Automatic annotation (TrEMBL):
Name of one Pfam family that matches: zf-MYND
Record carries keyword Nuclease: no
GO cellular component assignments: nucleus
SUPFAM superfamilies named in the record: HIT/MYND zinc finger-like (SSF144232), SET domain (SSF82199)
Protein known as: MYND-type domain-containing protein
Alphabetically ordered keywords of this record: Metal-binding, Zinc, Zinc-finger
Molecular function, one GO term: zinc ion binding
Lineage: Eukaryota, Viridiplantae, Streptophyta, Embryophyta, Tracheophyta
MYND-type domain: residues covered: 70-107
Signal peptide span: none
InterPro entries on file: H3K4_H4K5_MeTrfase (IPR050869), SET_dom_sf (IPR046341), Znf_MYND (IPR002893)
Amino acid sequence: MSPNLLVLEPSSLSSMEELRKVLQERGLAVSNLPGKGRCLLANKDFSPGDAILRQEPYVCVPNNSAEPRCDGCFASGNLKKCSACQVVWYCGSSCQTLEWKSHRLECSVLAKLENDKRKCVTPSVRLMVKLYVKRKLQSDKIIPATSIDNYNLVEELVSHIKDLDEKQLVLYAQMANLVNLILQWSDINIKEIAENFCKV
Ligand SMILES: [Zn+2]
Ligand SMILES: [Zn+2]
């Protein structure tokens, strides 16, 4: 495991406070500056070349709108579609095997979709589906959560919903509706999904 990643017991996870503690140990503080919004301030001197913070995205998907890309390594060319869901592409069995733990649940919900709806699964819609799938997998402890890799941090993001025009809000509502239709989980609702679209 990378020394940069601090794995904490799930019971000790409490989103921002936990993150603040981890950042403090690295000489960083979360702050709010007028006119700039939420930001990181350095509490110590860093030298050129120092890695200040390394964080993987909570979820990511390749932008497949121009050409298919592998879901594991984002490579293009010579790809095969996941035969079960017919949505996700892989360059080979090694990427498919590596991704299976997180794709398995997503695959089962995508596979249930009717063909015309499946065509509407854009990268943005998939990103949101993957976000909820990862939240579920972490809460079911199928994949581990860490202090800098947990859903609470997504929840802490600022939504900027007030800055959006009506056209954008309608689009997000439609996308949220599709995500809700794909997942059909009782613990999520369209409003919450739409708010998340305003965050990512
Ligand atoms: Zn690949
Ligand atoms: Zn699949």
